[in-house]
Amino acid sequence: MTTNRPDSAPHYWYGDDAERDRSIAVLEAMRTFRASESAMRRRSQESMNMGENDLIAMRYLLRATEQGKTVGPKELAQYLGITSASITVLLDRLEKNGHIHREPSPFDRRALIIVPTVPKDAIEAATLGDVRPELIDVVERLSPEEVRIIVEFLTEMREAVDQVDNHQPERDDRG
């Protein structure tokens, strides 16, 4: 005789077998890691008084500077996908906080170029928290085989996430 007891119900929609439980544990660990990483990035952004678009803009400007290129407000606005009014506000904020300055273009005196004044290391620290020594120490304790497995796993997870269609969530009702 089979009874349908409430305490024997599968977890959420995942089912209750051991393989599924391991999968849930991994996904939950990834979820909590992402939350911690997001909080770390937010703290870094706040310490530099910069928002997400500010940091993206600064990375773009620093990369262009390294390549010997100049960037004007219009090009940066196109890259960020924002309006000319929004780029003006963003540049005013970056300039006010000492992260950039605007100067006349050497090619067209009517145009402006944006010059970053913040060292690249400061931007990397705010945007690439994963280069922090505490995090490097954890990774350095892994064997080459563990690194290979983790990189392969994360690559496959990224590819799976990229394939998710947010309009039609799929449920697996195994169990």
Overview of the molecule:
The chain is mainly alpha-helical. The protein has 3 domains: 15-47; 52-118, Arc Repressor Mutant, subunit A (Orthogonal Bundle); 128-158, no CATH class. It contains 7 helices and 2 strands; from the N terminus they run ααααββααα. It has helices spanning 18-47, 52-66, 73-80, 84-96, 120-127, 133-140, 144-163; strands at residues 100-104, 112-116. Strands 1-2 form a two-stranded antiparallel sheet. α2 (52-66) packs across α5 (120-127). The longest helix is centred in the N-terminal third of the chain and has 30 residues, at 18-47. It is elongated. The chain starts with 17 loop residues before the first helix and ends in a 12-residue tail after the last helix. 10% of the residues are buried. Residues 1-9 have low confidence and may be disordered. Pfam families: MarR_2 (PF12802). Residues 19-159 form the HTH marR-type domain. This is DNA-binding MarR family transcriptional regulator.
Element layout with pairings:
Elements: H1 18-47, H2 52-66, H3 73-80, H4 84-96, E1 100-104, E2 112-116, H5 120-127, H6 133-140, H7 144-163
Antiparallel strand pairs: 1-2
Helix pairs in contact: 2-5, 3-4
Head-to-tail CA distance between termini = 18 Å
CATH architecture of the largest domain: Orthogonal Bundle
Largest sheet: 2 strands, antiparallel
The figure for the number of domains is: 3
Concise description?
The chain has 175 residues and is mainly alpha-helical.
